[in-house]
Amino acid sequence: MNQWKNFSKGFIKENAVFVLFLGLCPTLGVTTSAINGLGMGLATTFVLVMSNLVVSLVKNMIPDKVRIPAFIVIIATFVTVVELVMKGYVPVLFDALGLFIPLIVVNCVVLGRAEAFASKNTVWSSLVDGTGMGFGFTMALTVLGAVREILGSGAFFGMKMISGDAMLLFILPPGAFIALGYLIVLANMIKEKNT
Amino acid sequence: MEYVLIIIAAVFISNIVLNQFLGVCPFIGVSSKVETAIGMTGAVTFVMVIATLVTYLIFHSVLVPLDITYMRTITFILVIASLVQLVEIILKKISPPLYQALGIFLPLITTNCAVLGVAVLAIQKDFNLLESTVFAIGNAIGFGLALITFSGIREQLDLMNVPARMKGVPIAFIVAGLMALAFMGFAGIV
Questions:
Q1: Per-residue confidence band for A189, with pLDDT thresholds at 50, 70 and 90
Q2: CB count in 10 Å sphere of residue B46
Q3: What CA–CA distance (Å, rounded) separates B70 from B110?
Q4: For A46, A153, A173, B22, which has the most beta carbons within 10 A of its beta carbon?
Q5: What pLDDT shows up at residue A1?
Q6: Would residue B121 count as lying in a domain?
Q7: Searching chain B, which residue's CA lies closest to the CA of residue A73?
Q8: Residue to substitute from B12, B108, B111, interface A, most A β-carbons within 10 A
């Protein structure tokens, strides 16, 4: 397969969040600001790339029947690595993301790529696929985080742009659902234009 | 009284789906029909309560004494995955009709973050065994309440005249937002 196509499909065409509706829990849960969205996206991307790499390396050694538990163990290992590293080096972000760091292990994007792509393809394509998908996921989270931060607290990446109150609703849980709903419409419009 | 408060808080105030954002994937994925929503709720309740109980026991009798609590994520997800498999096998043998009804949902539950989330939350909140179980039951009820209400609304929504681009998932998200807004009204009752 054309590697550029393989890499770029995660941006819009098969975007995990906007098109496939996978990994919605962290998407909604952590995106109260753009920086949180970016941090969560990068953590997930790391796990995605590493698990894709390892799964594609060991795919011929794992019996078919136990492949899902085996994939989950591989993923959980890298999630634990991310957990410990973030706790040590970025404690503020670690606290902000809270429960959603260990929950990367049940992020359907990660297991979905391991099962649907890495277990059938070569190491190199799996790496490219993981990076592209992770990039698309990170982009989705950052955009949603930025929209919610701008509308909800009038700031962008922590820089205050207006004085006084903004629409607090967008920082609160209901705003997450509503903002994502409209962003999906927008993504669909972009997708239609491109095809 | 304390246990009643845990349940009320879990069902209404910090509803697992609408406030904590756990289990959003099945919330969007299997909510287009009320029947499937009820099936999913049954399966989740079953697994969530057992999983919280088992992970609690493993955490406090194996991981803490051995001082390997950093293995929490790996252990918990393995316990949940094998539990789901076990439940599937047992149900198939004991109650085929129930297996027919819940069967397709069971494999999905392994990657339902609500189950792992509740197990981890129960540990983080320092609950004892009984409190953890009550907490799991409360969250399962909360999940069911949100999912079944939502699927009822979505069934009606299919008959409505929605702008073409908003049909399906986008409008579902906006409805979920409004539901979350309604649930915020419960804040402060405990």
A1: confident
A2: 19
A3: 21
A4: B22
A5: 57
A6: yes
A7: B74
A8: B111
Domain range spanning residue B175?
2-184
Mean pLDDT for B15-40 is 84
Nearest to B36 by CA among B44, B112, A112, B161: B44
Q: Which residue has the tokens 């994007």?
A: A109
CA distance B19 to chain A (A): 6
Residue A161 in this model has a pLDDT that exceeds 80: no
The runs of H, that is alpha helices, within A19-164 are 24-30, 34-58, 67-89, 91-97, 108-113, 123-153
Question: Is residue B189, in this structure, part of any structural domain at all?
Answer: no
Residue A141 CA, distance from chain mean position: 7
Q: Rounded distance, CA A87 to CA B187, Å?
A: 31
Distance between CA atoms of residues B116 and B25, nearest Å: 14
Nearest CA in chain B to A107: B111
In a domain, B190, yes or no: no
Residues A159 and A69 sit within 8 Å (Cβ to Cβ): no
Rounded distance between C-alpha atoms, residue A123 and residue A100, angstroms: 28
Task: Return the amino acid letter for B71.
Answer: M
Count of the separate structural domains present in chain B: 1
Residues belonging to chain A: 195
pLDDT at B190: 66
Handedness of CA A54, A56, A58, A62 (dihedral sign): positive
- Measured over the CA atoms of residue A99, residue A177, residue B31 and residue A190, the dihedral's sign is negative
Check: complex ipTM more than 0.85: no
Amino acid identity, position A131 = T
Exposure string (b/e) for A98-125, b if CB count within 10 Å is 16 or more?
A: ebbbbbbbbbbbbbbbbeebbbebeeeb
Residues paired with residue A160 on neighbouring β-strands, in sequence order: A155
Domain assignment present for residue B62? The answer is: yes
Side chain identity at B74, as an amino acid letter? I
Residues of A in contact with B120 (CB under 8 A): 99, 102-103
| Dist. CA B33–CA A7, nearest whole Å | 36
CA B40 to chain centre: 9
Domain ranges of chain A: 3-194
Q: Is the pLDDT of residue B136 over 90?
A: yes
